[in-house]
Write a structure and sequence with these properties.
Helices cover 44% and strands 16% of the residues. It is of the alpha/beta class.
Protein backbone atom coordinates (compact mmCIF):
# COMPACT_ATOMS: atom_id res chain seq x y z
CA UNK A 1 0.00 0.00 0.00
CA UNK A 2 2.80 2.42 0.80
CA UNK A 3 4.01 2.32 -2.84
CA UNK A 4 0.59 2.98 -4.40
CA UNK A 5 -0.65 6.07 -2.58
CA UNK A 6 0.22 9.08 -4.71
CA UNK A 7 0.16 12.57 -3.21
CA UNK A 8 0.35 15.64 -5.43
CA UNK A 9 0.26 18.75 -3.28
CA UNK A 10 1.30 21.46 -5.74
CA UNK A 11 2.19 24.62 -3.85
CA UNK A 12 1.80 22.62 -0.63
CA UNK A 13 4.70 20.22 -1.25
CA UNK A 14 6.51 21.81 1.69
CA UNK A 15 3.52 20.75 3.78
CA UNK A 16 4.38 17.11 3.15
CA UNK A 17 8.02 17.58 4.11
CA UNK A 18 7.16 19.54 7.25
CA UNK A 19 4.42 17.09 8.15
CA UNK A 20 6.66 14.05 7.89
CA UNK A 21 9.30 15.79 9.97
CA UNK A 22 6.62 16.53 12.57
CA UNK A 23 5.45 12.90 12.61
CA UNK A 24 9.01 11.74 13.12
CA UNK A 25 9.95 14.33 15.75
CA UNK A 26 6.85 13.67 17.84
CA UNK A 27 6.93 9.88 17.28
CA UNK A 28 3.25 10.07 16.35
CA UNK A 29 2.88 6.57 14.91
CA UNK A 30 4.84 4.93 17.71
CA UNK A 31 2.75 6.71 20.34
CA UNK A 32 -0.49 5.59 18.73
CA UNK A 33 0.62 1.97 19.01
CA UNK A 34 1.62 2.59 22.63
CA UNK A 35 -1.94 3.80 23.33
CA UNK A 36 -0.54 7.17 24.43
CA UNK A 37 -3.53 9.45 25.03
CA UNK A 38 -1.31 12.54 25.40
CA UNK A 39 -0.86 12.53 21.64
CA UNK A 40 -4.27 14.22 21.51
CA UNK A 41 -5.11 15.47 25.02
CA UNK A 42 -3.64 15.44 28.52
CA UNK A 43 -6.88 13.98 29.90
CA UNK A 44 -7.20 10.25 29.07
CA UNK A 45 -11.02 10.42 29.18
CA UNK A 46 -12.57 8.87 26.05
CA UNK A 47 -9.12 8.23 24.56
CA UNK A 48 -7.34 5.58 26.62
CA UNK A 49 -10.48 3.41 26.44
CA UNK A 50 -11.10 3.99 22.71
CA UNK A 51 -8.09 2.36 21.05
CA UNK A 52 -9.32 -1.24 20.83
CA UNK A 53 -9.83 -0.86 17.07
CA UNK A 54 -6.08 -1.04 16.52
CA UNK A 55 -5.97 -4.83 17.09
CA UNK A 56 -9.58 -5.94 16.66
CA UNK A 57 -9.11 -7.40 13.15
CA UNK A 58 -6.35 -9.63 14.50
CA UNK A 59 -8.50 -10.67 17.46
CA UNK A 60 -11.62 -11.38 15.42
CA UNK A 61 -9.78 -13.30 12.70
CA UNK A 62 -9.79 -16.45 14.84
CA UNK A 63 -13.61 -16.33 14.91
CA UNK A 64 -14.11 -15.90 11.16
CA UNK A 65 -14.87 -19.54 10.34
CA UNK A 66 -17.09 -19.95 13.40
CA UNK A 67 -19.09 -16.84 12.51
CA UNK A 68 -19.54 -18.04 8.94
CA UNK A 69 -20.76 -21.46 10.10
CA UNK A 70 -23.17 -19.86 12.55
CA UNK A 71 -24.52 -17.58 9.82
CA UNK A 72 -25.05 -20.57 7.50
CA UNK A 73 -26.98 -22.36 10.23
CA UNK A 74 -29.42 -19.44 10.39
CA UNK A 75 -30.15 -19.86 6.68
CA UNK A 76 -30.46 -23.61 7.06
CA UNK A 77 -33.21 -23.04 9.65
CA UNK A 78 -35.30 -21.32 7.01
CA UNK A 79 -34.63 -17.66 7.74
CA UNK A 80 -33.97 -15.80 4.49
CA UNK A 81 -33.50 -12.12 5.35
CA UNK A 82 -31.54 -10.02 7.85
CA UNK A 83 -32.75 -6.53 8.76
CA UNK A 84 -30.24 -4.41 10.65
CA UNK A 85 -31.78 -1.89 13.03
CA UNK A 86 -29.18 0.77 13.76
CA UNK A 87 -27.77 4.14 12.81
CA UNK A 88 -24.38 5.80 12.35
CA UNK A 89 -21.26 3.80 13.09
CA UNK A 90 -23.33 0.78 14.11
CA UNK A 91 -24.81 0.41 10.63
CA UNK A 92 -22.68 2.20 8.03
CA UNK A 93 -19.91 -0.41 7.70
CA UNK A 94 -22.36 -3.24 7.08
CA UNK A 95 -24.31 -1.08 4.64
CA UNK A 96 -21.08 -0.30 2.79
CA UNK A 97 -20.24 -4.00 2.58
CA UNK A 98 -23.70 -4.91 1.34
CA UNK A 99 -23.72 -2.24 -1.35
CA UNK A 100 -20.26 -3.37 -2.44
CA UNK A 101 -20.73 -7.16 -2.45
CA UNK A 102 -24.44 -7.93 -2.11
CA UNK A 103 -25.38 -11.25 -0.47
CA UNK A 104 -24.40 -14.84 -1.23
CA UNK A 105 -27.57 -16.69 -2.41
CA UNK A 106 -26.88 -19.43 0.15
CA UNK A 107 -27.03 -16.94 3.01
CA UNK A 108 -29.41 -14.14 4.00
CA UNK A 109 -30.51 -11.19 1.93
CA UNK A 110 -29.84 -7.97 3.81
CA UNK A 111 -31.22 -4.50 4.40
CA UNK A 112 -30.76 -1.65 6.87
CA UNK A 113 -33.23 0.64 8.62
CA UNK A 114 -31.51 3.82 9.79
CA UNK A 115 -34.28 6.40 9.43
CA UNK A 116 -37.13 7.35 11.76
CA UNK A 117 -39.09 8.64 8.76
CA UNK A 118 -42.52 6.95 8.88
CA UNK A 119 -42.37 6.06 5.19
CA UNK A 120 -38.95 4.45 5.58
CA UNK A 121 -40.13 2.38 8.56
CA UNK A 122 -43.27 1.22 6.77
CA UNK A 123 -41.31 0.35 3.62
CA UNK A 124 -39.17 -2.06 5.59
CA UNK A 125 -42.20 -3.47 7.40
CA UNK A 126 -43.92 -4.23 4.10
CA UNK A 127 -40.81 -5.69 2.46
CA UNK A 128 -40.13 -8.36 5.08
CA UNK A 129 -41.84 -11.44 6.43
CA UNK A 130 -41.14 -11.49 10.20
CA UNK A 131 -41.35 -15.29 10.20
CA UNK A 132 -38.35 -15.45 7.85
CA UNK A 133 -36.40 -12.46 9.14
CA UNK A 134 -33.50 -12.17 11.57
CA UNK A 135 -33.42 -8.71 13.16
CA UNK A 136 -29.97 -7.35 14.07
CA UNK A 137 -30.26 -4.76 16.84
CA UNK A 138 -27.00 -2.82 16.60
CA UNK A 139 -26.00 -0.12 19.09
CA UNK A 140 -22.83 0.33 21.12
CA UNK A 141 -24.46 2.16 24.01
CA UNK A 142 -27.58 0.02 23.96
CA UNK A 143 -29.92 2.98 24.34
CA UNK A 144 -29.71 4.84 21.01
CA UNK A 145 -33.23 6.26 20.63
CA UNK A 146 -33.62 5.37 16.96
CA UNK A 147 -32.42 1.80 17.40
CA UNK A 148 -34.53 1.17 20.48
CA UNK A 149 -37.58 2.59 18.70
CA UNK A 150 -36.99 0.24 15.76
CA UNK A 151 -36.63 -2.67 18.19
CA UNK A 152 -39.86 -1.85 20.02
CA UNK A 153 -41.76 -1.59 16.74
CA UNK A 154 -40.48 -4.70 14.97
CA UNK A 155 -40.43 -6.89 18.07
CA UNK A 156 -44.08 -6.03 18.72
CA UNK A 157 -45.03 -6.77 15.09
CA UNK A 158 -43.12 -10.04 15.09
CA UNK A 159 -44.62 -11.13 18.41
CA UNK A 160 -48.10 -10.45 17.05
CA UNK A 161 -47.42 -12.85 14.20
CA UNK A 162 -45.32 -15.55 15.89
CA UNK A 163 -46.31 -15.38 19.55
CA UNK A 164 -44.20 -14.72 22.65
CA UNK A 165 -42.54 -18.12 22.67
CA UNK A 166 -40.83 -17.81 19.29
CA UNK A 167 -40.25 -14.10 18.81
CA UNK A 168 -36.90 -13.89 20.64
CA UNK A 169 -35.22 -16.35 18.29
CA UNK A 170 -35.66 -13.83 15.47
CA UNK A 171 -33.51 -11.21 17.19
CA UNK A 172 -29.81 -10.83 17.87
CA UNK A 173 -27.99 -7.87 19.40
CA UNK A 174 -24.57 -6.32 18.90
CA UNK A 175 -23.67 -4.04 21.79
CA UNK A 176 -21.19 -3.39 24.58
CA UNK A 177 -21.09 -5.58 27.65
CA UNK A 178 -23.11 -4.08 30.49
CA UNK A 179 -25.36 -2.05 28.20
CA UNK A 180 -29.10 -1.86 28.74
CA UNK A 181 -29.55 -3.78 25.48
CA UNK A 182 -27.53 -6.71 26.80
CA UNK A 183 -29.89 -6.97 29.75
CA UNK A 184 -32.99 -6.52 27.62
CA UNK A 185 -31.83 -9.06 25.06
CA UNK A 186 -31.37 -11.60 27.82
CA UNK A 187 -34.81 -10.87 29.22
CA UNK A 188 -36.43 -11.21 25.80
CA UNK A 189 -34.46 -14.40 25.03
CA UNK A 190 -32.68 -13.11 21.96
CA UNK A 191 -31.10 -15.81 19.84
CA UNK A 192 -27.64 -14.39 20.49
CA UNK A 193 -25.99 -11.30 21.96
CA UNK A 194 -22.59 -10.30 20.57
CA UNK A 195 -20.64 -8.26 23.11
CA UNK A 196 -18.22 -6.00 21.31
CA UNK A 197 -14.93 -4.75 22.74
CA UNK A 198 -16.04 -1.70 24.80
CA UNK A 199 -12.75 0.04 23.95
CA UNK A 200 -13.95 0.59 20.38
CA UNK A 201 -16.04 3.63 19.47
CA UNK A 202 -18.92 3.20 17.05
CA UNK A 203 -17.32 4.90 14.06
CA UNK A 204 -14.12 2.85 14.52
CA UNK A 205 -15.97 -0.48 14.72
CA UNK A 206 -16.05 -1.60 11.06
CA UNK A 207 -13.71 -4.57 11.62
CA UNK A 208 -15.38 -5.60 14.88
CA UNK A 209 -18.63 -7.50 15.46
CA UNK A 210 -20.57 -4.43 14.27
CA UNK A 211 -19.27 -4.88 10.74
CA UNK A 212 -18.37 -8.55 10.61
CA UNK A 213 -21.48 -10.21 12.08
CA UNK A 214 -23.76 -8.68 9.41
CA UNK A 215 -21.09 -9.50 6.80
CA UNK A 216 -21.13 -13.15 7.90
CA UNK A 217 -24.92 -13.27 7.64
CA UNK A 218 -24.64 -11.96 4.06
CA UNK A 219 -22.22 -14.80 3.34
CA UNK A 220 -19.26 -12.52 2.66
CA UNK A 221 -15.68 -13.75 2.92
CA UNK A 222 -15.01 -12.15 6.29
CA UNK A 223 -11.69 -13.96 6.65
CA UNK A 224 -10.49 -12.21 3.50
CA UNK A 225 -11.83 -8.85 4.69
CA UNK A 226 -10.13 -9.24 8.07
CA UNK A 227 -6.88 -10.40 6.45
CA UNK A 228 -6.92 -7.23 4.38
CA UNK A 229 -7.42 -5.22 7.56
CA UNK A 230 -4.57 -7.08 9.29
CA UNK A 231 -2.19 -6.41 6.40
CA UNK A 232 -2.99 -2.73 6.61
CA UNK A 233 -2.62 -2.83 10.38
CA UNK A 234 0.87 -4.28 9.98
CA UNK A 235 1.74 -1.67 7.36
CA UNK A 236 0.63 1.10 9.69
CA UNK A 237 3.02 -0.04 12.42
CA UNK A 238 5.89 1.44 10.38
CA UNK A 239 6.86 4.93 11.50
CA UNK A 240 6.49 6.19 7.93
CA UNK A 241 3.31 4.73 6.45
CA UNK A 242 0.82 5.91 3.85
CA UNK A 243 -2.16 6.21 6.18
CA UNK A 244 -0.18 8.42 8.55
CA UNK A 245 1.02 10.53 5.62
CA UNK A 246 -2.46 11.01 4.22
CA UNK A 247 -3.95 11.78 7.62
CA UNK A 248 -1.25 14.27 8.53
CA UNK A 249 -1.48 15.99 5.15
CA UNK A 250 -5.27 16.28 5.40
CA UNK A 251 -4.90 17.80 8.85
CA UNK A 252 -2.23 20.27 7.75
CA UNK A 253 -4.11 21.25 4.60
CA UNK A 254 -7.25 21.86 6.66
CA UNK A 255 -5.31 24.21 8.92
CA UNK A 256 -4.07 26.07 5.84
CA UNK A 257 -7.62 26.55 4.51
CA UNK A 258 -8.06 23.47 2.33
CA UNK A 259 -10.49 21.77 4.68
CA UNK A 260 -12.97 20.35 2.14
CA UNK A 261 -11.75 16.78 1.55
CA UNK A 262 -13.60 15.83 -1.61
CA UNK A 263 -13.81 12.07 -2.20
CA UNK A 264 -14.33 10.30 -5.51
CA UNK A 265 -14.59 6.54 -5.97
CA UNK A 266 -14.80 3.79 -8.51
CA UNK A 267 -18.52 2.97 -8.82
CA UNK A 268 -18.19 -0.46 -7.20
CA UNK A 269 -16.94 1.04 -3.91
CA UNK A 270 -18.87 4.33 -3.99
CA UNK A 271 -20.69 3.47 -0.75
CA UNK A 272 -17.37 3.61 1.11
CA UNK A 273 -17.81 7.37 0.96
CA UNK A 274 -20.67 7.45 3.47
CA UNK A 275 -18.60 5.46 5.95
CA UNK A 276 -15.53 7.70 5.50
CA UNK A 277 -17.73 10.78 5.81
CA UNK A 278 -19.04 9.86 9.26
CA UNK A 279 -15.59 8.75 10.43
CA UNK A 280 -13.83 11.99 9.52
CA UNK A 281 -16.66 14.41 10.28
CA UNK A 282 -17.52 13.07 13.73
CA UNK A 283 -13.86 12.69 14.67
CA UNK A 284 -12.51 16.07 13.59
CA UNK A 285 -15.21 18.72 13.99
CA UNK A 286 -15.22 19.94 17.59
CA UNK A 287 -14.10 22.54 20.13
CA UNK A 288 -14.87 25.31 17.56
CA UNK A 289 -11.59 24.40 15.88
CA UNK A 290 -10.92 23.81 12.22
CA UNK A 291 -12.35 20.46 11.17
CA UNK A 292 -12.12 18.42 7.98
CA UNK A 293 -15.35 18.66 5.97
CA UNK A 294 -15.72 15.46 3.93
CA UNK A 295 -17.57 15.97 0.64
CA UNK A 296 -18.93 12.73 -0.84
CA UNK A 297 -21.37 11.98 -3.63
CA UNK A 298 -20.67 15.26 -5.41
CA UNK A 299 -20.41 14.82 -9.20
CA UNK A 300 -16.95 15.94 -10.30
CA UNK A 301 -16.76 19.22 -12.19
CA UNK A 302 -14.13 21.21 -14.07
CA UNK A 303 -11.45 22.96 -12.00
CA UNK A 304 -13.11 26.37 -12.29
CA UNK A 305 -16.17 25.36 -10.23
CA UNK A 306 -14.03 24.76 -7.16
CA UNK A 307 -12.64 27.23 -4.68
CA UNK A 308 -9.19 27.16 -3.11
CA UNK A 309 -10.47 25.24 -0.08
CA UNK A 310 -10.46 21.79 -1.70
CA UNK A 311 -8.28 18.70 -1.56
CA UNK A 312 -9.33 15.75 -3.70
CA UNK A 313 -9.04 12.07 -2.77
CA UNK A 314 -9.75 9.43 -5.42
CA UNK A 315 -9.98 5.76 -4.44
CA UNK A 316 -10.13 3.35 -7.36
CA UNK A 317 -10.39 -0.41 -7.86
CA UNK A 318 -8.22 -2.21 -10.40
CA UNK A 319 -6.79 0.99 -11.88
CA UNK A 320 -3.50 2.82 -11.57
CA UNK A 321 -5.22 5.90 -10.19
CA UNK A 322 -4.93 7.96 -13.38
CA UNK A 323 -8.00 9.93 -14.40
CA UNK A 324 -8.50 12.84 -16.79
CA UNK A 325 -10.61 14.86 -14.38
CA UNK A 326 -8.11 14.32 -11.59
CA UNK A 327 -5.30 15.27 -13.95
CA UNK A 328 -7.12 18.52 -14.77
CA UNK A 329 -7.60 19.33 -11.09
CA UNK A 330 -3.96 18.57 -10.43
CA UNK A 331 -2.87 20.76 -13.36
CA UNK A 332 -4.97 23.58 -11.91
CA UNK A 333 -2.99 23.35 -8.66
CA UNK A 334 -5.47 21.53 -6.46
CA UNK A 335 -3.94 18.95 -4.08
CA UNK A 336 -4.83 15.45 -5.27
CA UNK A 337 -4.41 12.15 -3.42
CA UNK A 338 -4.80 8.95 -5.46
CA UNK A 339 -5.32 5.59 -3.78
CA UNK A 340 -5.65 2.62 -6.16
CA UNK A 341 -6.58 -0.74 -4.61
CA UNK A 342 -6.40 -4.15 -6.27
CA UNK A 343 -9.92 -5.46 -5.64
CA UNK A 344 -13.02 -4.80 -3.58
CA UNK A 345 -11.93 -7.09 -0.74
CA UNK A 346 -9.25 -4.53 0.09
CA UNK A 347 -12.09 -2.52 1.57
CA UNK A 348 -11.16 -4.22 4.85
CA UNK A 349 -7.77 -2.57 4.57
CA UNK A 350 -9.41 0.72 3.64
CA UNK A 351 -11.45 0.60 6.84
CA UNK A 352 -8.23 0.44 8.85
CA UNK A 353 -6.39 2.88 6.57
CA UNK A 354 -8.94 5.63 7.15
CA UNK A 355 -9.30 4.94 10.86
CA UNK A 356 -5.54 5.37 11.23
CA UNK A 357 -5.40 8.37 8.89
CA UNK A 358 -8.21 10.05 10.81
CA UNK A 359 -6.59 9.80 14.23
CA UNK A 360 -3.34 11.18 12.77
CA UNK A 361 -5.25 14.06 11.16
CA UNK A 362 -6.85 14.81 14.52
CA UNK A 363 -3.40 14.92 16.12
CA UNK A 364 -2.54 17.71 13.67
CA UNK A 365 -5.82 19.48 14.48
CA UNK A 366 -5.27 19.04 18.24
CA UNK A 367 -8.67 17.43 18.88
CA UNK A 368 -9.75 14.17 20.48
CA UNK A 369 -10.87 11.90 17.60
CA UNK A 370 -12.94 9.65 19.85
CA UNK A 371 -15.48 11.92 21.55
CA UNK A 372 -18.55 13.71 20.16
CA UNK A 373 -19.37 16.49 22.64
CA UNK A 374 -21.90 18.33 20.47
CA UNK A 375 -24.07 15.36 19.53
CA UNK A 376 -25.88 15.38 22.86
CA UNK A 377 -27.17 18.96 22.55
CA UNK A 378 -29.59 18.16 19.72
CA UNK A 379 -30.68 14.97 21.52
CA UNK A 380 -31.48 16.91 24.68
CA UNK A 381 -33.63 19.47 22.86
CA UNK A 382 -35.43 16.73 20.92
CA UNK A 383 -36.16 14.92 24.17
CA UNK A 384 -37.67 18.11 25.59
CA UNK A 385 -39.94 18.44 22.54
CA UNK A 386 -41.08 14.84 22.95
CA UNK A 387 -41.82 15.37 26.65
CA UNK A 388 -43.85 18.44 25.72
CA UNK A 389 -45.79 16.40 23.19
CA UNK A 390 -46.58 13.75 25.76
CA UNK A 391 -48.04 16.42 28.03
CA UNK A 392 -50.12 18.44 25.55
CA UNK A 393 -50.22 16.21 22.42
CA UNK A 394 -48.74 18.98 20.28
CA UNK A 395 -45.37 19.07 18.55
CA UNK A 396 -44.04 22.48 17.45
CA UNK A 397 -43.12 22.84 13.79
CA UNK A 398 -40.73 25.74 14.38
CA UNK A 399 -40.33 28.80 12.20
CA UNK A 400 -40.07 26.99 8.88
CA UNK A 401 -40.63 28.86 5.61
CA UNK A 402 -42.56 27.68 2.58
CA UNK A 403 -40.23 26.70 -0.29
CA UNK A 404 -38.91 29.97 -1.70
CA UNK A 405 -36.00 30.25 -4.13
CA UNK A 406 -35.48 33.94 -3.31
CA UNK A 407 -35.33 33.24 0.44
CA UNK A 408 -32.71 30.55 -0.18
CA UNK A 409 -30.72 32.85 -2.46
CA UNK A 410 -30.82 35.66 0.10
CA UNK A 411 -29.65 33.23 2.79
CA UNK A 412 -26.59 32.25 0.75
CA UNK A 413 -25.50 35.90 0.53
CA UNK A 414 -24.10 35.40 4.03
CA UNK A 415 -21.50 33.03 2.62
CA UNK A 416 -17.83 33.86 2.79
CA UNK A 417 -15.00 32.27 0.80
CA UNK A 418 -14.13 28.94 2.40
CA UNK A 419 -17.62 28.31 3.78
CA UNK A 420 -19.74 25.28 2.94
CA UNK A 421 -23.45 24.55 2.64
CA UNK A 422 -25.04 21.52 4.31
CA UNK A 423 -28.47 20.43 3.13
CA UNK A 424 -30.17 18.53 5.94
CA UNK A 425 -33.14 16.60 4.58
CA UNK A 426 -35.50 15.31 7.28
CA UNK A 427 -37.69 13.69 4.61
CA UNK A 428 -38.56 10.27 3.24
CA UNK A 429 -35.57 8.92 1.27
CA UNK A 430 -36.73 7.91 -2.23
CA UNK A 431 -35.09 7.81 -5.65
CA UNK A 432 -37.17 10.81 -6.75
CA UNK A 433 -36.11 12.77 -3.68
CA UNK A 434 -32.49 11.74 -4.30
CA UNK A 435 -32.71 13.23 -7.80
CA UNK A 436 -34.28 16.46 -6.55
CA UNK A 437 -31.62 16.85 -3.85
CA UNK A 438 -28.88 16.28 -6.45
CA UNK A 439 -30.37 19.11 -8.52
CA UNK A 440 -30.48 21.37 -5.46
CA UNK A 441 -26.89 20.51 -4.64
CA UNK A 442 -25.72 21.35 -8.15
CA UNK A 443 -27.74 24.59 -8.13
CA UNK A 444 -26.19 25.72 -4.85
CA UNK A 445 -22.67 24.86 -5.97
CA UNK A 446 -23.06 26.75 -9.23
CA UNK A 447 -24.60 29.74 -7.47
CA UNK A 448 -22.02 30.00 -4.67
CA UNK A 449 -18.94 27.97 -5.76
CA UNK A 450 -19.02 26.51 -2.25
CA UNK A 451 -18.77 22.86 -1.28
CA UNK A 452 -22.27 21.47 -0.75
CA UNK A 453 -23.05 18.36 1.30
CA UNK A 454 -26.36 16.53 1.52
CA UNK A 455 -27.57 14.27 4.31
CA UNK A 456 -30.83 12.61 5.26
CA UNK A 457 -32.01 13.18 8.82
CA UNK A 458 -31.82 11.81 11.40
CA UNK A 459 -29.06 9.67 9.86
CA UNK A 460 -26.62 12.57 9.42
CA UNK A 461 -26.94 13.46 13.12
CA UNK A 462 -24.79 10.38 13.78
CA UNK A 463 -22.37 11.32 11.02
CA UNK A 464 -21.81 14.98 10.18
CA UNK A 465 -23.98 16.41 12.97
CA UNK A 466 -21.00 16.74 15.33
CA UNK A 467 -19.03 18.71 12.74
CA UNK A 468 -21.95 21.01 11.98
CA UNK A 469 -22.19 22.21 15.56
CA UNK A 470 -18.61 21.74 16.71
CA UNK A 471 -16.26 23.10 14.04
CA UNK A 472 -15.06 26.67 13.54
CA UNK A 473 -18.39 27.82 12.11
CA UNK A 474 -17.98 27.72 8.33
CA UNK A 475 -21.31 26.05 7.59
CA UNK A 476 -24.56 27.40 6.21
CA UNK A 477 -27.34 24.95 7.03
CA UNK A 478 -30.46 24.40 4.96
CA UNK A 479 -32.89 22.17 6.84
CA UNK A 480 -35.77 20.58 4.94
CA UNK A 481 -38.82 19.10 6.67
CA UNK A 482 -42.11 17.72 5.37
CA UNK A 483 -45.61 16.87 6.52
CA UNK A 484 -46.12 14.02 8.95
CA UNK A 485 -48.02 11.43 6.86
CA UNK A 486 -51.39 10.10 7.94
CA UNK A 487 -49.97 6.59 7.97
CA UNK A 488 -47.57 7.20 10.85
CA UNK A 489 -46.61 4.05 12.79
CA UNK A 490 -46.73 4.26 16.59
CA UNK A 491 -43.65 3.42 18.65
CA UNK A 492 -44.51 0.92 21.41
CA UNK A 493 -43.28 1.99 24.85
CA UNK A 494 -41.39 -1.32 25.07
CA UNK A 495 -40.94 -4.46 22.99
CA UNK A 496 -44.20 -6.41 22.81
CA UNK A 497 -46.35 -3.61 24.24
CA UNK A 498 -49.60 -2.34 22.72
CA UNK A 499 -49.12 1.02 24.45
CA UNK A 500 -47.60 3.92 22.53
CA UNK A 501 -46.95 7.54 23.51
CA UNK A 502 -45.44 8.86 20.28
CA UNK A 503 -45.16 7.98 16.60
CA UNK A 504 -42.15 7.85 14.31
CA UNK A 505 -43.35 11.05 12.66
CA UNK A 506 -43.37 12.85 16.00
CA UNK A 507 -39.90 11.51 16.83
CA UNK A 508 -38.46 12.67 13.49
CA UNK A 509 -40.11 16.10 13.84
CA UNK A 510 -38.62 16.50 17.32
CA UNK A 511 -35.20 15.44 16.08
CA UNK A 512 -35.29 17.98 13.24
CA UNK A 513 -36.35 20.82 15.51
CA UNK A 514 -33.82 19.75 18.13
CA UNK A 515 -30.98 19.94 15.64
CA UNK A 516 -32.16 23.26 14.21
CA UNK A 517 -32.29 24.86 17.66
CA UNK A 518 -28.92 23.33 18.56
CA UNK A 519 -27.43 24.95 15.44
CA UNK A 520 -28.85 28.34 16.41
CA UNK A 521 -27.63 27.91 19.99
CA UNK A 522 -24.15 27.28 18.56
CA UNK A 523 -24.38 30.54 16.56
CA UNK A 524 -24.62 28.73 13.24
CA UNK A 525 -26.26 30.21 10.15
CA UNK A 526 -29.37 28.15 9.44
CA UNK A 527 -32.63 28.35 7.52
CA UNK A 528 -35.58 25.98 7.55
CA UNK A 529 -38.07 25.10 4.81
CA UNK A 530 -41.28 23.08 5.17
CA UNK A 531 -41.75 21.22 1.88
CA UNK A 532 -45.27 20.05 2.66
CA UNK A 533 -46.55 16.74 1.32
CA UNK A 534 -44.85 16.73 -2.10
CA UNK A 535 -41.17 16.65 -1.16
CA UNK A 536 -39.53 16.50 -4.63
CA UNK A 537 -41.72 19.35 -5.87
CA UNK A 538 -40.91 21.42 -2.79
CA UNK A 539 -37.18 20.88 -3.29
CA UNK A 540 -37.40 21.98 -6.93
CA UNK A 541 -39.22 25.15 -5.89
CA UNK A 542 -36.06 26.11 -4.00
CA UNK A 543 -34.18 26.21 -7.30
CA UNK A 544 -36.89 28.21 -9.06
CA UNK A 545 -38.06 25.12 -10.91
Amino acid sequence: MAETVHLFLGDHENTLRNTMADLTDHKVVQRIWKYDHTLWKDDPKEIANRLGWLRVAETLRDEADTLKSWAKSIRDEGLTHALLLGIGGSSLASETLHQTFGSDPEFLTFSVLDSTDPGAVLERAVQIDPAKTLFIVSTKSGDTVETRSFLNYFYTRTQAQLGRKDVGSHFIAITDGGSSLEALGGKLEFRRIFLNDPDIGGRYSALSYFGMVPAALMGLDIARLLDSGIRMMNTCEAADNSAARVGAVLGRLALSGRDKATFLFSPEIASLGDWIEQLIAESSGKEKRVGIIPVVGEPPGPPEVYGSDRVFVRITVGEDGRNEKMDALQAAGHPVIRIPITDCHEIGGQFFFWEFATVVACEQLRVNPFDQPHVQTAKTIAREKIEGYRENRKIPRGNALAPDAMALSDFTYQARPGDYIAVQAFVHPTSETDAALAELRDYLRRMTRLAVTVGYGPRFLHSTGQLHKGDSGKGLFVQLISDIPKDDPPIPVEPGSDESLITFGILKTAQALGDYEALLNADRRAIRFDLGADVPSGIRQLTGG
